[in-house]
Amino acid sequence: MQPHPPPRSPRPWSGPRRRPAALAALALAVCVLAATAPVPAGAQVDDPEVREAQRELKEARERVRAKRERIRAIQGRIDAIATRISELRSSIERTELGIRRARRAIEDLRARIAEIQSEIDERSREAFILGPATGLQMLLAADSYVQLTRAIGLLDELNSRDAELAAELLSAQERMNLRRAELERLELRRIGLLFELGTRRRELREVFREQRKVLERLRARRDLARRRLSQLRPFAVCPVDGPHAIADDFGAPRVDVIEVEGKDGKVKRKERVRKHQGNDIFAPLGTEIVAPFDGVAVDARNELGGLAVKVIGEFGYVYNAHLSRYGKLGPVETGDVIGYVGTTGNARGTSPHDHFEWHPGGGPAVDPHPFLLLVC
């Protein structure tokens, strides 16, 4: 078996000898890739225009990020103010209900005090006319033990009745004082709530102006975000197309004053407490209200909601109330203007808002708040 020959030493490379065109093409490709490849972080860039472009891009990203954070902060403030305004409205309604009840109680007590005082005055006149000897005369005029016993019992009954009248008068006056104190406390509370409500409304208007300025600067980006969000369900877009604030007030107490005709034919005012069936979306008067999905918009005006519109579609229907005027009715597509924010119905005197309800499958209303946050 013969040994392997020793390996040959490699020949030193002395430059290109063959295929010069292929090598030239390879060199050109390397140069192009080197020129177009992204510059690693921290690498030195010699071209001043490239450095300036990178700096501007970084600053633009930082500005967009800062404005996004500012918008989120403003929206959080607006939503908190809107929720507080809704809470104040509920507190004012409950306080006014207490005031009406206290006033009715005071009127009833005043009438009863007048009756007691009239009876006391009548008994005082009788005692003055008959004189202080009346009781003694009744006892002396008795001809028998039976008559004497009856006279004594009558005197005891009269004295007892006088004591009862005096006690009832004192009790009624004490209750009257308590009711008056309660009425004064409730009226002071109402003044405080109305003052805070006015302050919150002014604050809301100021924040709306601030939000509008920021949104105008980022109009293009907002529209892009809305187009992306429009793919979400059940609502493709926000029902209120403009500066807005969503109150998380589904199920909050509401008090309605209704007139009921009694059996005697007299009309009486009664209070009815109900639960809020949607979310109030506060916005400047006249802000556009749009269809959140494809469907059919119908006139749904009523006493409480004022001018109102329903949009019936694949996911049930939505109900928008307190409109200032109508938009498009009939078949509508996502984003069509169906009305404008107002204060009609029982919203007169309040901040302009869209009362927004969602009834999945046409059934009972459910809280739309988490779904509104996805698109508003």
Provide an overview of this structure.
The protein has helices at residues 20-36, 48-130, 134-140, 145-217, 219-229, 369-375; strands at 240-241, 245-246, 253-261, 267-275, 279-282, 288-290, 295-299, 307-313, 316-326, 330-332, 337-341, 353-359. The chain has 6 helices and 12 strands. The radius of gyration is 42 Å and the shape is elongated. The chain is an alpha+beta fold and 376 residues long. It starts with 19 loop residues before the first helix and ends with a helix. Strands 1, 2, 5, 6, 7, 8, 9, 10, 11 and 12 form a 10-stranded antiparallel β-sheet that branches.
Keywords:
376 residues; alpha+beta; two-stranded antiparallel sheet; disordered N terminus
The residue fraction in helices comes out at 40-55%
Biggest sheet, in brief?
10 strands, antiparallel
* Integer-rounded radius of gyration: 42 Å
Low-confidence stretches: 1-46, 133-140, 228-232
How far from one another are the termini?
89 Å
Q: Based on helices, strands and strand pairing, what is the structural class?
A: alpha+beta
Arithmetic mean of pLDDT: 75
The global form is elongated
| Strand element count | 12
- Secondary-structure element pattern, one letter each: HHHHHEEEEEEEEEEEEH
User: Helical element count?
Assistant: 6
SS strand fraction: 15-25%
